[in-house]
Amino acid sequence: MEPARPFPRRVFLPDWVWAVAFVGTVAGTLVTDSAWCFGVPAFLAFAQGIYVYHLVRCPTCSGRLQVQLAPIPYTTCSRFQLACPRCQIVWDTGKISDDHAG
Question: Could you report the per-residue pLDDT of 61-83, keeping only the tens digit for each?
Answer without folding.
Answer: 988 999 888 888 898 888 889 99
